[in-house]
Amino acid sequence: MKVAKFGGSSLADANQIRKVCDIILSDKDRRLIVVSAPGKRNKEDTKVTDLLIALADKYYKEGKADAELQAVIDRFDDIVKGLELSSDVTQMVADDLKKRLECSNGDKDKFMDTMKAAGEDNNAKVVAAYLISKGINAEYVNPKDAGLLLSEEYGNARVLPESYENLKLLRERNKIMIFPGFFGYSKKGDVVTFPRGGSDITGAILAAAVKADVYENFTDVDSVFAANPNIIDNPKPISTFTYREMRELSYSGFSVLHEETLEPVYRMEIPVCIKNTNNPSAPGTTIAPTRKLDNGPVIGIASGTGFCSIYISKYMMNREIGFGRKVLSILEDEGLSYEHIPSGIDNMSIIIEQKQLDKVKEERVVKRIKDELKVDDIKIEYDRALVMIVGEGMMSTVGIAARACSALAKANVNIEMINQGSSEVSMMFGIKAEDNVKAVKALYDEFFN
Amino acid sequence: MKVAKFGGSSLADANQIRKVCDIILSDKDRRLIVVSAPGKRNKEDTKVTDLLIALADKYYKEGKADAELQAVIDRFDDIVKGLELSSDVTQMVADDLKKRLECSNGDKDKFMDTMKAAGEDNNAKVVAAYLISKGINAEYVNPKDAGLLLSEEYGNARVLPESYENLKLLRERNKIMIFPGFFGYSKKGDVVTFPRGGSDITGAILAAAVKADVYENFTDVDSVFAANPNIIDNPKPISTFTYREMRELSYSGFSVLHEETLEPVYRMEIPVCIKNTNNPSAPGTTIAPTRKLDNGPVIGIASGTGFCSIYISKYMMNREIGFGRKVLSILEDEGLSYEHIPSGIDNMSIIIEQKQLDKVKEERVVKRIKDELKVDDIKIEYDRALVMIVGEGMMSTVGIAARACSALAKANVNIEMINQGSSEVSMMFGIKAEDNVKAVKALYDEFFN
């Protein structure tokens, strides 16, 4: 059994929905389908979810938003007509929206979640109606009936553990199931939505619950690439990489999935396949628990800018028990998350995303570290880039660091920080942000050309 | 004004003391002299301090230890005779020891400190008596009179801040002052000793207090070397290195000073010169706040074995605020100090000295990290070596990492961990302990041959 999730751009109009249904029908194992709300049809278009937010906002304030309501109905009507379905389907959508608007006299967060969820919910019904109209044994599945129970955190819900037992039963249904993404229900029976990446989360939960053979995630790219296509022309596509490699590549800036969303399938060791709705015959990219190491030691190069390094030095730092813990406690108090802590004997550099620091917070953090830890020196170096080379094969290959460092030296890139833990699945170089493009090119040439 | 400290082997017998006095007199700036207790005259010999401990232990238990007392008196008498001093000097030592033994009916720690300090104290008096017998304007300085006040932590005292104001006045005395190392006095007036390296600490405190031009530390080596002489034949001597470089080289296993002891001179930016009593014309090694970078980018290679790496992995670790702090809190609770924390996105390796972990503690730490932090994986990798290349010049030189990694690759050493903070004064490689010698040789060849 395969769980397939289709994103908003894959379901933006009738034509796209036809493509999606062809994809569904082309593989009899694709039985549990997660759909997003209709996305943008072109660059200037508005996503249905954004139309719904505008509708809900205005209606909550003014008790009336006829034009905004009509805009949503028109988007669905357009799809219904394009799919040559009965106008009853549009009427069903309109009735559903009106019913949801009736909740506007309660809690705003609850109302917003009810409204936002309408895009996925109605789209699932439309897709199911279309498949049924073609004589396919398909059905819309209501997340409430299926038992997708979430914590009562509007807009930021987490799945409750009992959901998995409930959803497991979907495995037994002998139909193609169309399941709306992005939301579930609280124990009280109210609609609650996931944070961003919501439909991906629904798909991952379903795939884990039914122990799917694969979780297919259809987007609008053919595959994940070995390097950022904005830096490297036509970078090599990655056919398979491991969860660990995917995580280490997360600075890449060309990520197609929120990795948080994959935790349920990661735990169940279910492979994820990223495929292109508009080119479904392309093999896509598979993320698996393990892979054959037949592709060279390095599978990808990721880089990100916008980092800074907080450099701290103190004589005899390495003999002061509790020093590192105290530094990290101060960062935690200030809500700062860090990436790496490369260190010398008497100094440490804490690498963080610099957007986390404004002038006030920076001054407070520096003052606290100075005063509470009596350091000899502290300074913040801005505009650093982190460049990572990633690959499970690096562990078993002597000389990777030599090749990487030599390539960077030849490109005249000064390596300010280096970090490699004993997993040996990645190696990090901290450099000046201005050297980022040069560094990625040099490393790509070394390991891929 | 120079402060010169002479260690136990430099003062082991009359001949050595004559050499020391020649050294003192050969430079009129050497005016404040710190002496240790007489050390070993040969490999089988016993240090006076150890004789004193044996005497004190037995006397405390049995109220009598004639043979042990005589052994100490004999050592001093030997020196006194060798220096052709009056037998009154030996009598003074014997009287002093007997007076100290009278304190045996009190607190044991206090008694032990009083007894241990007798080695340095009487040796300072003997050296002063010898200089005076030669017609030199010299004097023994009593730390109590000079105002060297310490915390009341027997065997582990710290200097009290007011000592610096008191000791500053020594600058004004127009004599060669012989100051016993290793001990001072509590505010109550009792003898208290420093932890190990005690005479070095006394010297550093005096040098800082009188703002010495240099703190000379006379031992029995000509200089500090660029690599461990047990691994590299005739390694290059280091003529000058910085405090930071000295600290980064502290894994070297051929350290001649306890670095903790240098904190007072480090703070005052006073250079330290390590010299050989038996070869005083050799230039020695100077440790200074800064140095000319005229010696190549790498000044030394240090390595140490006996480390292990605690490897922890958890999906989405880098997004879990507080994760690192919690790991370090557990280590702190368990009294473990760590060296470095190289990391990937979802994993961290904590490098610690493995002698800190016994089986029971290991199991407890692993269990706590598993249970409290819900990690995916934790394992301990034993018998790792840390190899450091160190040099202030590395910062301004592109390509050091490439040269180091290439040298290690050529020697077929697999680099498991790499760590370099933005100070760029050192680069650490974590490798298997069995590769340690191979790695040091390869790096020495690369940077020094």
UniProtKB/TrEMBL annotation, chains A, B:
Substrate binds at T49, E120. It catalyses: L-aspartate + ATP = 4-phospho-L-aspartate + ADP. Residues 389-449 form the ACT domain. InterPro entries: AceGlu_kinase-like_sf, ACT-like_dom_sf, ACT_Aspartokinase, ACT_dom, Asp/Glu/Uridylate_kinase, Asp_kin_monofn, Asp_kinase, AsparK_Bifunc_asparK/hSer_DH. ATP binds at K5, F6, G7, G8, T219, D220. It comes from the Bacteria. Keywords: Amino-acid biosynthesis, ATP-binding, Diaminopimelate biosynthesis, Kinase, Lysine biosynthesis, Nucleotide-binding, Transferase. GO terms for cellular component: cytosol. It is an enzyme of class 2 (transferase). Its EC number is 2.7.2.4. Pfam families: AA_kinase, ACT_9. GO terms for molecular function: aspartate kinase activity; ATP binding. The keyword Cell division does not apply. Gene3D superfamilies: Acetylglutamate kinase-like, Aspartokinase, catalytic domain, VC0802-like. One of its GO terms (biological process) is homoserine biosynthetic process. Pathway: Amino-acid biosynthesis; L-lysine biosynthesis via DAP pathway; (S)-tetrahydrodipicolinate from L-aspartate: step 1/4; Amino-acid biosynthesis; L-methionine biosynthesis via de novo pathway; L-homoserine from L-aspartate: step 1/3; Amino-acid biosynthesis; L-threonine biosynthesis; L-threonine from L-aspartate: step 1/5. Belongs to the aspartokinase family. NCBIfam families: asp_kinases (TIGR00657), PRK09034.1 (NF006540). PANTHER family: ASPARTATE KINASE, ASPARTOKINASE 3. Catalyzes the phosphorylation of the beta-carboxyl group of aspartic acid with ATP to yield 4-phospho-L-aspartate, which is involved in the branched biosynthetic pathway leading to the biosynthesis of amino acids threonine, isoleucine and methionine. This is Aspartokinase. It comes from Acetivibrio straminisolvens JCM 21531.
